[in-house]
Amino acid sequence: MLADREPVTAYVALGANLGDAQRTVLDSLAALDRLPGTRCTGRSRLYRTAPFEAEGPDFINAVAQLQTRLSAPELLDALQALENQAGRERPYLNAPRTLDLDVLLYGQARIFSPRLTVPHPRMWGRAFVVYPLADLAPELVTPADWTRVAGQSIEAIMGPIS
């Protein structure tokens, strides 16, 4: 039963580059706080980034810190339901998107399944993850992480959000 589970600290990346991307990210941050057994305990600043390994307009990105009683697969299902509600389509790899939600970290878990890999396998090479994650948990970001993202374009546009 969900209420019997101990909460886990999870970090979720949010991004959008279609429609009113900033509104979508802000609304999604609020929606995360309404997931069953979940509380949003931290929100990074919002960042504008050029598409990285993707195409289309600039992205609006953020990271949320959650305390959740959902299992990692249940959290992934909930995030994908939010993406679908936002009109997310997947016509091809790295297509522009109305909303993208990724589980970055789930406690200390190491998960390697066909549906979910945690820690997220590409998170430390993406400025749009490293910068907002550092807003919430600077101790998780190493000097090597900053070096990997040094040449990527990123601009804080709002925050921090409380």
The low-confidence runs, each spanning 5 or more residues with pLDDT under 50, are: none
CATH fold description: Alpha-Beta Plaits
Please indicate the percent range of residues in DSSP E strands (runs of 2 or more): 25-35%
List how many beta strands DSSP finds. 8
* C-alpha Rg (nearest Å): 15 Å
CATH superfamily: 7,8-Dihydro-6-hydroxymethylpterin-pyrophosphokinase HPPK
Secondary structural class: alpha+beta
**What is the CATH class?**
Alpha Beta
Cα distance, first to last residue? 30 Å
The number of distinct structural domains comes to 1
The average pLDDT is 91
Any idea what the CATH architecture is?
2-Layer Sandwich
Provide an overview of this structure:
The chain is α+β, with helices and mostly antiparallel strands. The protein is built from four helices and eight strands; from the N terminus they run E-H-E-E-E-H-E-E-E-H-H-E. The protein has helices spanning 21-32, 72-85, 127-136, 143-148, and strands at 8-16, 38-43, 46-49, 59-68, 100-106, 111-112, 117-118, 154-158. Strands 1, 2, 3, 4, 5 and 8 form a six-stranded antiparallel β-sheet that branches. It has a two-stranded antiparallel sheet with strand order 6-7. The mean pLDDT is 91.
